[in-house]
Each structure stands twice: as C-alpha cells, then as structure tokens.
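Revision sheet: structure tokens.
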Amino acid sequence: MKKLLLFSMMYMLALLGNASEITFDMTDPIAFGFSKAANGSYTQIKNGETLTKDNVVITAAFSTGNGLRFFTHSTLGTVNLRAYVNSTFTFSTTDNSKITKIEIEGTNLGTTYLTFPEGYDGEGTWIGDATSVEVKCIKSTVQLNSIKVTVAESGSLAAPNFSPSAGNYYGSQTIKLTGPTGAKIFYSLDGREYNEYTAPFLLEEPERDSKLYEVYAYSELNEQKSDTVTARYVISAVKIYNTLADLSAACTATSQNEAPIVRLMFTNNDMIVTYSSGQNTFISDGHNGFLIYGSGATFSPGTKLSGYIEGKLYSYNGLKELSVVGGWDNVEVLDQTVYDVTSQEKTITEIVTNIDALESSLVQINSVNFEAAALTSKAVTVMDEDGEELVLYDQFGVLAAKPFNTTDKYIIIGFPARRNSSVQMYVTEIRTIHSEVASPSFNISTGTYEESQTVTMSSANATSIYYTLDGTDPSSKSTKYERPIIIDETTTIKAIAYNNAGIASSISEITITIDKPIRTIRDLYAACTATTAADAPTVKFKFENLLVTGSKNSNVYVSDGENAFLIYGSKSGLEKGDIISGTITGKLYSYSGLSELAVSDSYADVVKVSSGNNVSAVTKTLKEIADNYKALESQYVEIKEVTFAATAVSSKNVTISDATGSVVLRDNFNILTSEQFDTNATYTVKGFVLNYNGTAQLYPIAVEDIVKNIPDAIHGIKAISSAKKGIYTIQGQKIETIAGKGVYIIDGKKIYIK
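Predicted:
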C-alpha cells in the first residue's frame, strides 16, 4: 500500500513541475471583502458566494444550518473560517486548470468531519488531478486557518461560472455569468439558438417553471471554445402577509427544512416591538403577537417598525416563529417615538383556552403564588386565585436573576408559548405584591464565579438602596447604590432598601466568590512554586483543545503546541492522539523537580473533542535536552543516532549518547526490563523530557519508542546466508510468524506491516 501511495505521490509531483500555489489566509476575512461588525462578528457567507484569489475559486453551499462563516473567538479574539455540518465548499479554477493538491491547516480535519474525493490523507492534504474538488462538512465544527491550492498549467478554455449556483429559490434572483478574461459568453434556453451574454438575467417570481441555461465561452484570440455547461433554476414566489393573524394561520411547517420563505410587511403603521432579548424579538400589530427569531435586531421595546422582513415560517417545538433570512436590512424605525408597551391582563384559564390567539402576545397575570422557591430546569409552576396552574419558563434569565418565594403573591408579565403539547409562559418581568418595602434583589446569586462580576440591585417598591461590602449590616448612612458594582475578589454584599417614608426593608445578602482558573500551560508553570503535595495549592485548570501526546498509567502528557505539561491522576480514560477540552482541579507542585498537576476531582469535566489525531515528536539533540530541559519539560521529543552505554537498564536507568552529549534514560514505567540493547548499533529514541532534581532525564512510555536504526538492523541480517530464507525482527531475531504491525525483514527485504 505504501509503495502504491509513493508512486501516486511521485506522479503528482511530476505534474507539479509547472504549477502555481495559491494560499488563502482564512484568518483575514477583510481581504475577501467582509467587514467587521461592532460586536466583532462577520456576515455569514451566503449560499453560492465565492472566495477568489488569482485563478482559484472557492464556492460555498449549504442546505441548512450555519454553512460557512468567519468566526471570531470570544476570548482569544482570533478569527478563522468555520464550516458547519451540511455545508460544502468547492474548489475550481477560472481557466479550467487542473487542481493537483489542496493543503488545509486547521482543526477537525479528519474523515469524520470532512469528505473529499479519493486522494485525501485524512489530515488536511488532498492529492489528485481534477478541475473541480468538492469538500463536504459532515460533522460540526471544522476550523480552517489557511488553504493552499496547487494548480497545474492548462491550455484549455474554462467554462463560464453561474452565480448564484443552480437550484431552487424563493423570490426574484439575478443570475450572473463570469468567464475567462477576454472571452465571450454565449447562452441558450433551448439548446439550439445561442445569444451573446451582455448583462445579468433577472428571474422574477412567480416563475414556477424551471429555466435551463446552457452556456459556453469562446475566445476569438485563441479560437478556443469551452465545454458547454448547464444550470437549472426554479423560482418560487415569496408569499406576502400583512397581518400577524394571516402569518400565524399560514404557519403549518414543523421544521426548518420544510419551511417556506415568506415576507411579513410592516405597512399598517401598528407593528410595534414588545420585547427583545438575544435572537428573540416579539412584535404586535395591535391584535396578535408573533416571534421573529434572528440575530442582528437592535430595536427597543416600544419601537414601531416599517418595511418588511423575510424568513422561514415554521413551528419550533410547537412555538410559531419567523426565522430571519438575509438579516434586518429592510426593516426601519417608523419614527423616533418610543411608544408605550401595554400588556393584556389575562387569567391562566384564558391563556390556556385561547393559546392560538394569545401566543407570543404580551400578557399579565395578577396575583399568583409560586409553588416552589427555585427553578427546576429553568421552569417553575405558579397558581392563580382560581387554583389554575401554569408553567413559567425562564427563557430570558429573568427568574434566575430575581429571588421569589412561596409566601408572597406576584404579578407575572410575559409571552404565552406552546411547548409541544403543553402551554407555558416566557417570563419578562415579575412584581411582588405586598405592603412592605421589597428587599433589594441582585442580578446574580451567591456562588463561585470564574471572572469578575458586575452586580446590579433593584427593589420593586423602594426609592433608594444602600449597601456594604465588608460584611457589616447596611443602613441609610452606608454607600448609596447608584450604579453597577464591579466585584473582582471574593466579597459579601449586604443591601437594604427604603421607601419615601423612610421605611426600611429587610436586608438582602449575597456572597460572590471569585475563583479565576488557570487557562494556559504557560500560566501553570508560572504558578507552580510548591515543592511538596503538603504545601501545594489546589488550582483549577480550564483549557481548550489540548493534544494528549502520551498516556501511561497515571501519567497524561498534554501539549498546546508550544508548551507541554504532566497531568497526574488515575482512570483518565485518555489516549495518545486525543484532543481534549474542559476543567481539571488538582494540586500544583514540583515532584523531585518535575512540574505536575495532581488530579483531585477526577476527569469528569474533561471532554474528548476528537481522537486519533497525529502526535509528532519534536526532534532534538541530547545537548539541547540537557541545556534546555526546563523549557522542554514534558515535551514529546525524538533523538536520532543514539547509542546505549549498556545492553540493559540497571535500577531503571541506562545512559544514552549521541554526537552532542549524554542523558539518562529512565525506565519509569518498567517497559524495558526484558529489552536488550546493541551497544554497537544506533537507535532512534522517543520520550518525554523530565526535570529530575535539576538534571535532565528522558522517559519513554512505550517499547515502540525505541527503534533500532535500519542500517544497523539490516547489517545483522546481511550476515545471514541468502540461502536461509525466513522472517526476522528489525533487531535480527528470527521468528516463525508475524505477531503484529511493525517493520520486519522478510527474505532480506524490509517490509512494513500495517
């Protein structure tokens, strides 16, 4: 198999003799014309949109979901192109040149995430010979940092390209044709009569009959004609709705895949925003309410809208919504007035029996009791004075931010919503009904947080709030609350509220514990100052996408690409080649000079992002290891041309040397006790660099990490008479059968058994 692959690679290298390499930097979306929004995000790459550099074109396509988009990491601020499940990106050339190689740098490049045509190595490189290469993302999420495309020279004339690509569309579409520079494009709708293309075609709705375009390019300069290519378009009408009642009646689809694209007109001057949070924008036309779902809305409650919005119309878990397609560019504020948003007073019975009319309308339920003092899975049940019950769902984090109890009565404001076969209510506000001054409430609860917290306070019927941060009881002489408080260390906040009459509430109290985790291996080393477990601090290490470079017994070695570290703890379940993310809590200290994190809470919060990834050892000399063992600590390294000072380990140690120096090889895991070394031969040795009380050592964790170099192994084989055919190990030992994968000498020839 390897010989065949080598032949294929040599053939492709021959093709690359007259080739060009075009590199797409996917960390720079601005270079492709994408502008950065104020929140740091970039617009999604549209279906059929292309990224072009020189003569290479990458065309995006997706059926559902997020497709392809440039993504900004919320913490690191780094940018890359991300491909999500069901997306496709196709490589082609503007001049019909052959693509012979594609090299991708990024993460999740294995065949469980991407499918290529034949010739893909599963690690980011495809070698082949094609004018078009289609890559599909079959599992989310693939991160693409750069793509290098190798293109062979071609003398043929490229066929024209369609934009957008052929397919089914809602609403009018403008079809553009592009072809080779200097060539004319000719098109036909019947396959017989061809006309020269001079301007884009406008396919207007309704156009239910499909249109099939046949086109080719022709160069008068070279008297060349391209291949004829075809594209079929089916344009369906975008249905228009002017009222929310009609929109609701038309909502029959139950999934995004089968949902039609429709247009909602804001032409009656009564369309008002009743609430907006995240991607949820609720609107009302004065009679009915509806949920518009989509990011990018910047409208405040009380804003009247004009224009129109287009989206997919369907029920999500029973709740009707219009999922925005194409953004909010066609929606404008009618005027600058902020109108009052009023809620309809309803009983629980009225809500449940009239859910069709009241769904997504802002309603108010008076005088209810909570049946529990805390949420369960973001939900809690309330009961009104008639004994009717309704589940409140904390969709917007309102209930989690405000304490409630089972003794007081409350006013609930929010939006009735279907959830499958049941009726719930999305809460936007709760008000306590009692004659006393409401004690202050906080936007967060007592707990442990990993970052500094911004704390706000409020009281339902008070005019002023005073607070302390030192644990003492507050009074009107304490600090007055006027703006949010930033808490960046463990603090107890006590607060008291007063009304106009000077009547005080009871004291509210929360304790915020700030426990910031260590997030990088570099910071782990900086914090590792203890030398024994007894004086070691317990730290929380929170990480993303670390590569497991080795795992043996209780030792797990991880790397972030620059630094490596030893995680010590049993039952990790981790293997070499795993990429992991999550949190590990443990004691951080140096054991005989070696920095390690001794796991104290198991690996329960560690997630395998992927497995079977390539682990490469860093090539070093023994002098480099001896001189730089602190910087190389726990790194997986490879040393070539190594000789052993003895034929076996003694007290777990054996000295190894190369042309630059010597280091002790420590058989810490007792894997070499039965191994014999040829002191006259050279070896390639892999292992982990350790600091042992100020000196460098090397720990191998597998017998396979010590390999006798081929020339020395074959030297012993050559001594065997050619008349004595047979099978030998790489060390020259004759065997009867092949026991497993590895390198063998069979009848004098080196054979690799996979």
